[in-house]
Structures are given as structure tokens and as C-alpha cells.
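Batch job 17 of 40 flagged for manual review because the log was empty.
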Amino acid sequence: PLGCPSDDDDVAGDDDTTGDDDTTSDDDSADDDTTEEPIVDNDEDGFEPDVDCDDGDPAVTPVWVSVTGAEEGDGSWLDPFPTVAQGLAAGTGCVRLMGGIFREHGMEISGAVTLIGDYGVEATRIDGDGLGRIFTVTAGPSLIVRDVHLRNGASTDGGCLHLTEASLILEDAIVDDCVASESGGAIFADTTPVVLSDTTIKN
């Protein structure tokens, strides 16, 4: 039958060389089974989509920030910046927070930025300590905040966030205990679209 050796094939079947070839064929097949899928990096900036905030724009690359980062940190995952302000100043458009409480306020944003808490909203907080507004966003850019807790901002308008002609998206975020003496205890948005997704805003 097709695929079965005949009596005339016995010599070939006993031949060591032929047997070795069969073994080699099996090894090749095993190697093929364990081949890893190629890494996807659509904009070829060296970062995969689950790390890159925008895998379609090579100008947007992530920097990391940690409360234990060194002053001379370069913003890489192994050597993160110590403050959110330094992460924003890098101007890469993508800032990833490595958990902890960042006690900062008075940060101004003038370009599109995505801010992500790598360890989730319960583990990542930016706390203004009641000393001032956390973020001021002006003239055109968009701010996306994901998995971050904003707390204890204070100002005349917009205790935690003040936006002028700039869009805001909050995803899986918390904004609380922010106060304003006039308008917008948590968020003041002037001619600005605001999108909230799975986000809590409270006193």
C-alpha cells in the first residue's frame, strides 16, 4: 500500500544513513513547532503596541517614571525618571508610571500626552497635597489619563485639571478630593471635550 515499504525496500530501510535523515527531518519539524511569533512594531520605534501609547507614530515613545527613580535617570524602564514632571518634560507623548504616590502639582502640558499607570489605578496616585492644581492643559493638545488616581489638587478653577481648547479622556481613573474656590472642583474645561470611561469623580 502507498506509504508502506516493500520487500525490495528493506536494504534502504536498514541503511543507517537513511535512518539518520529521518531523524533530522523529525528535528526540523520540532524546531518549526517552537518558532516564536515575530514581534509587532508597526511604527518601528522599538516598542511593542502594549507598551507604546501610539504604535502608528514613531515620534511617540514611552518613558517611565518611578517614585524610586534616580535624579539622573534617563526615563528608560531600567532607569526611570523620579517625577511625573520630568516624564512630561521629555516630550515623547507617552508617560508610564510605575506605581506609588507622586506628590506633585503645577504641571503644564502643551502637547498631546498619554499618561498610564502601569500597576492600575489603585496603585498609582498623583497627589497635589492641596498645594496647587495638578495639571493645566492649554491650546490644542489632548490629554489621556489611564489607570491613574488624581487627588488633592487645589486652585481657583479646576482643582485637579484645567483645560483650555484641549481634549481630555479619563479611562479607569479616579479624581477625588480636589477643590476650587470658584469653578470646577475636579475639572474645569473651557470649550473642551471631556470623555469619561469607567472613571470615578468624587469629593
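Reviewer: the log was empty due to a logging misconfiguration, but the result itself is present. Confidence is low (pLDDT under 50) at residues 1-7, 11-15. Unflagging and moving on to job 18.
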